Amino acid sequence: MVADDHPLIREGIAAVIESQADIALVGEANNGREAVEGFLQHQPDVILMDLQMPEMNGIDAIRAIHQGAPSARIAVLTTYRGDVRALHAIQAGAVGYLLKSSLRRELVDAIRALAAGKRWFPPEIAAELAEHLGVENLSLREVEVLQLISLGHANKVIAKRLAITEDTVKGHVKSVIAKLGANNRTHAVAIGLKRGIIDSSLVG
Questions:
Q1: What angle do CA 86, 107, 18 make, to 5 degrees?
Q2: Could you say which of 134, 164, 190 is where a domain stops?
Q3: What is the predicted pLDDT for the residue at 83?
Q4: How many domains does the chain have?
Q5: Which of 10, 53, 110, 160 has the fewest beta carbons under 10 Å from its own?
């Protein structure tokens, strides 16, 4: 099954699959909600899931499917190279990662590998994911602090907003900078935005 809000991507995948005697496309979804419903209806062996879709994003859809079917074989379908979105998708239950730019070359092999119970991560993605897994793991509180820093708030204001002491905020800031390998607060925010750790839509 393919879940992607771009008809051309779905049509392209369908065209490739049609030429394969051992693979059949049993369902298509235009958003995450349809993907969850389609999985329940069709029970596909492999799901290709776009990350950015309307109504429900791919990561939430992966999480919803995985909760009901932990053995579901889901691969992320995306234009992005490995970043925090990929990490979140894997934490949600994805076992594969397909770049849309590589579909023509890798799609069939990836589907067969996933159906056989294997994982599928291109080498360049795997290397970046390993880098993230090694340094990231910010706590929810640290993410909150970083988000507030990105909005231009000083430690004193952050402490008041989160109902914690200023010293605790300083400790969180120090930890965030260390975990992200940043030089300072501003650099930490830049890394957070680039990797999708904090919400860019909230930053003015």
A1: 135
A2: 134
A3: 58
A4: 2
A5: 160
pLDDT at 7 (0 to 100):
94
Query: In this predicted structure, what is the pLDDT of residue 85?
Result: 72
CA distances from 115 to 32, 47, 118, 150, 172 (A): 21, 10, 7, 42, 43
Residues 97 and 41 in one domain: yes
Same domain, 12 and 95: yes
Let me know: does 58 contact 89? Beta carbons within 8 Å. yes
Cα 66 to Cα 62: distance, rounded to the nearest angstrom: 6
Residue 168, domain extent: 137-202
Q: Are residues 32 and 124 in the same domain?
A: yes
In whole angstroms, how far apart are CA 148 and each of 88, 105, 125?
A: 21, 42, 30
Of 134, 142, 130, 132, residue with least CA distance to 198: 142
Q: Taking the complete model, does pTM exceed 0.70, yes or no?
A: no
Residue 45 sits in the same domain as residue 141: no
Contact present, 93 and 86 (Cβ < 8 Å) = no
Tell me the three-class secondary structure of 74-91, residue by residue.
EEEEECCCCCHHHHHHHH
- Among 84, 104, 134, identify where a domain stops: 134
Give the pLDDT score at 104.
84
Give the C-alpha separation, 28 to 180, whole Å.
Answer: 38
The parts of the chain modelled with pLDDT lower than 70 are 81-84, 127-137, 199-204
